[in-house]
Amino acid sequence: MAPLLSAPDLADALATPDPALRPVVLDVRHRIGGPPGRPDHDSAHLPGAVFLDLDLDLADPPGAGGRHPLPDPARLQEALRRAGISDDSLVVAHDDGNGLAAVRAWWVLRWAGLPAHHVAVLNGGFAGWVAAGLPTTAEPSRPAPGTVTVRPGSMPVADAEGAAELGRTGVLIDARAAARYRGETEPIDPVAGHVPGAHNVPVLDFAGADGRWPAPAELATRFAGLDIGGPDVGAYCGSGVTAAALVLGAEYAGLRAPEAPITLYAGSWSHWVTDPQRPVAVGDRP
Hints:
This protein is α/β, with parallel strands linked by helices. The chain is built from ten helices and ten strands. It has helices at 7-14, 38-43, 73-82, 100-111, 125-131, 160-169, 178-182, 216-221, 244-252, 268-272, and strands at residues 4-5, 24-27, 50-51, 91-94, 119-122, 157-158, 171-174, 198-200, 233-236, 263-265. It starts with a strand and ends in a 14-residue tail after the last helix.
């Protein structure tokens, strides 16, 4: 599978008589600050889709590691097995917004060891599925337990020191809105600004409000002026969720191979500012 899958293509895959080719669908509807996505899933979801909570299943509790630290591997494995995922499963994640929660699921599954061609995001999300006239149900999904073994570290991750080094000698990209990058506003974290040396590529407009991503050639223009083909390229955001869209976007645009993804600073800005000794840059220049 490509990293983005259309609603008709997912419907065809779900209708296949071969269980090995039938994807597991993960519903990861999520809103910062609530309300939770679970009630929406219970009201209507793709047939067979299983709900995973971004905060509870795809991240550890907030703390010294940031607002969305990487999930404990054992706890993640339990959640993925509960969803019916095995090592050879195909998995498609969706949300009902701009796709960024689904991209977090895509990245976590890749980090956990699932092959690149086995994991995708539903282009257009839940709204796109409904707009295509495809069925939904309120029937609870009860998949057979999966047998996946989580192998953490299958995607490159940077810590604060690594992010700082990328800002000095490589290419470090900040995925947040431009005003947050410039330090003009910070609605969530206690300090405003950006990691010194970071360039700003906001991802909130990667996918539109309907969750549909632009074509690869158009997406590639979002990275214009940045040499992201080399080995020392990293990305961060507020808490390690939305920056995953830079990883997927670079791959979908053909700027990075699946086997050489952009490194993610998992703790991101929410971790960077936990140490007052770390420098903070402001303004529109790296």
